[in-house]
Amino acid sequence: MLSKTIKSEIKRLSEEESIDSSILEQFANFIVINNNETGQANKGSRKKPLKMAEIKIST
Fold first, then answer.
1. Domain edges within the chain
2. Could you tell me the pTM of the whole model?
């Protein structure tokens, strides 16, 4: 589930900061899962950018 880039960063941090890589992997998986859940929930609530006419009226 984790990309190659994330796995290599986990390895780097694990070695550099003496952190157990399994803890970092668990945290990364948690972030990915929660980001996907909230991303789908908020997908419909994204604001649309203002049109040029609306910007001109507001100024």
1. 4-58
2. 0.60
